[in-house]
Specification:
mainly beta; four-stranded antiparallel beta sheet; about 5% helix; elongated
Length: about 160
């Protein structure tokens, strides 16, 4: 089953199917094979299991998570020379905590952009102030690069249509 992690405990994993039409809870234990990224809330996973959809207990035989999702969680910032400095923290379930810029750009979410390592999309609004204040939704494609000195965010904004 392919889906998105809804909840995790040390002994269980709850997953909503990609189609969104079912939610299944799996028993996980030391015999469950794990690979890829961590099975944390909001991450895409593939679960191979024993049991049928209508049985009271499904046992996860293996869980494979999206590595990009778990790798990108945490604080990211543009370089000091960026025209518009951006500092954000990517949180589980596509949430963003933003410290810069304080206005103009507002990021309200993020998601893994396909399967390419280190590529995500940021969503939000850009505010343009002239005689009036206007807000426009946008999606920014971002590449995240980690060096020994910093976690760098490289991005390009695209207005949503």
């Amino acid at each position: 089953m392919a889906g998105v992690v809804e909840a995790v405990t040390p002994s269980s994993l709850t997953v909503r199917s990609i189609a969104g039409d079912s939610v299944l809870m799996f028993v996980v234990d030391e015999a469950t094979e794990r690979s890829g990224g961590d099975a944390i809330e909001g991450n895409a996973v593939e679960v191979c299991y024993r049991g049928s959809h209508d049985s009271p207990e499904l046992t996860a035989l293996s869980v494979t998570g999206n590595e990009t999702y778990t790798d990108v969680l945490g604080r990211w910032a543009t370089g000091r020379r960026a025209e518009l400095p951006v500092e954000i923290e990517l949180l589980p379930r596509g949430e963003v905590r933003q410290t810069a810029p304080p206005s103009l750009l507002y990021f309200d979410g993020w998601y893994v952009d396909g399967v390419q390592d280190g590529r995500i999309s940021l969503t939000g609004e850009v505010t343009i102030v002239t005689d009036t204040v206007e807000r426009y939704p946008f999606t920014a494609r971002a590449e995240l690069r980690e060096t020994s000195a910093a976690r760098c965010l490289l991005w390009r904004a695209h207005p949503d249509r």
